[in-house]
Amino acid sequence: MTALVGVATAILTFILTKRRYNIEVQTKGIERDLKSFEYYKEVTDETIASQNQKIEQLQKENQVLKVQISNLQAQVASLLGTVCYDTSCSKRRTIMPQS
To answer: What DSSP designation does 93 have?
Structure first.
């Protein structure tokens, strides 16, 4: 009878120990995965912040360029308004090549 109790105790101990070991392995795996997730989240957040700064900088540069284009368009329009298209017009100046 004592041997039977000893075997039953050994089996129960084995089962409980194996279960505890499996739970510890799963816990360590989850902790490892969580650390990996936190690392990649940090890297992603840094990348997003960097990209947002670049986008803001490009938007500012774009605004400056739009203003410059607008100014140049106004200058071209002003110049075109003063050009005489009639080839016989006395106001039209032609530059003759020098020989």
So the answer is: -
What's the average model confidence in pLDDT over 9-14? 84
The answer to whether the beta carbons of residues 84 and 91 sit under 8 Å apart is yes
Q: Does the pTM exceed 0.90?
A: no
- Alpha helix segments (H runs only) across the chain: 2-82
Apex 11 CA angle, 6 and 17, nearest 5: 120
The vertex-55 CA angle with 51 and 57, nearest 5°, equals: 115
The model's confidence at residue 15, banded by pLDDT at 50, 70 and 90, is confident
Between CA 85 and CA 91 the distance in angstroms is 10
Cα→Cα distances 67→38, 45, 61, 70, 73, Å = 44, 33, 10, 5, 10
